[in-house]
Amino acid sequence: MFELLSRWINGLRDRLQSVRPNVREARGLKLLKEWLSPEQLAQYNANGFFYVTGCDTRHRYRIHHGAAMNIVEIDDVGDARAGWCFIPKACLVAGDVMLAQKIALETDERGALAIAKNFTPGS
């Protein structure tokens, strides 16, 4: 009897643990979408990315769905100039990371880029 109960509890625990990440991811995406402008939301829903304008340089950035190496600086004709990677220290779901990146670029672009790692897009 104890062995059966133990297996049932372990199976329930495994099922609950597999659901939790999906719930966190959904909550992160819901919060992100609440903070996006209507234009950014349309871009994200259609393409899986949205554009942000930096507050200091007025450069345009494309933030792709993801939690790392997901920011591309765009030139005047829409081509990739540089890739940027900066993420919060905490372990967060992609929606939360993208929201933090959006807010950072729109409110403290220079500070965000000072800690960011630069990479060549497509590499």
Task: Describe the protein's architecture and organization.
This protein is an alpha+beta fold and 123 residues long. The chain contains four helices and five strands. It has one domain (28-119). The chain has helices at 2-35, 38-47, 94-107, 109-115; strands spanning 49-53, 60-64, 71-74, 80-85, 117-119. A five-stranded antiparallel sheet has the order 1-2-3-4-5. Strand 2 and strand 3 form a beta hairpin. Helix 1 packs parallel to helix 3 (94-107) and helix 3 packs across helix 4. It is elongated.
* Main sheet: strand order: 1-2-3-4-5
What is the first-to-last residue Cα distance?
Answer: 56 Å
**Uncertain spans, ≥5 residues at pLDDT below 50?**
none
- Which range best describes the helical content: under 10%, 10-25%, 25-40%, 40-55%, 55-70% or over 70%? 40-55%
Q: Biggest sheet, in brief?
A: 5 strands, antiparallel
**DSSP helical segment count:** 4
How big a fraction of the residues is strand?
Answer: 15-25%
Task: Return the domain count.
Answer: 1
Overall pLDDT: 88
Question: What's the Cα radius of gyration?
Answer: 19 Å
Structural class: alpha+beta
Outline: elongated
Number of strands: 5
Order of helices and strands: HHEEEEHHE
